[in-house]
Amino acid sequence: MAYSKRIPPIKIVLTIKEYNTLIGVLTENSNSQNDEIIKNIALLTKEKLLKYSVPRNVNENIEIDIRLYINEAVDIISQFLTFTNLRLKEIDYYQVLLKVRENIGDLTNENVSDNDIIRNE
Predict the structure, then answer these.
(1) Between 18 and which of 5, 14, 27, 93 could a Cys-Cys bridge form, CB atoms 3.0 to 4.6 Å apart?
(2) What does pTM read for this prediction?
(3) 97 in a domain, yes or no?
(4) How far is 55 from 1, CA to CA, in rounded Å?
(5) Which residues have C-beta within 8 Å of that of residue 57, sequence separation ≥ 6?
(6) Is 116 within the bounds of a domain?
(7) Which residue range is the domain that position 48 belongs to?
């Protein structure tokens, strides 16, 4: 059987600034975390990105192509959430969401009559 090459399904194209931010977040998480799992994931992800990212010139701009498997994309998202979680104030945005939804519901109920509702019958 011939060797088959599997290309990661997720492609992200970053500017130099975005790439530096991503690597910076991973570096910060790998240096400052007490949780060994988060620290190790940050370190492994950073090493993969530095090894496998591909810089390209496009219209005199440099772009960096990153190919990821789904689990690697999930790891990057969790690393960003961990990074921001340490730096954000403790605001309960879920309560803000509930208030906004409540206000939208109040506005919708005031402005909509029974004749305006479309029913699927």
Answers:
(1) 14
(2) 0.68
(3) no
(4) 33
(5) 63
(6) no
(7) 10-88
**Into how many domains does the chain fold?**
1
Residue 113 in any domain: the answer is no
pLDDT, average across residues 15-43: 90
Residue 116: the pLDDT is 41
The full 3-state SS of the chain, as one line of letters, equals CCCCCCCCCEEEEECHHHHHHHHHHHHHHHHHCCCHHHHHHHHHHHHHHHHHCEEEEECCEEEEEEEECHHHHHHHHHHHHHHHHHHCCCCCHHHHHHHHHHHHHHHHHHHCCHHHCCCCC
- How far out from the chain centre does Cα 108 lie? 32
Instruction: Give CA–CA dist 55/18, Å, rounded.
Output: 13
pLDDT confidence band for 27 (50 / 70 / 90): very high
- Per-residue model confidence (pLDDT) at position 107: 64
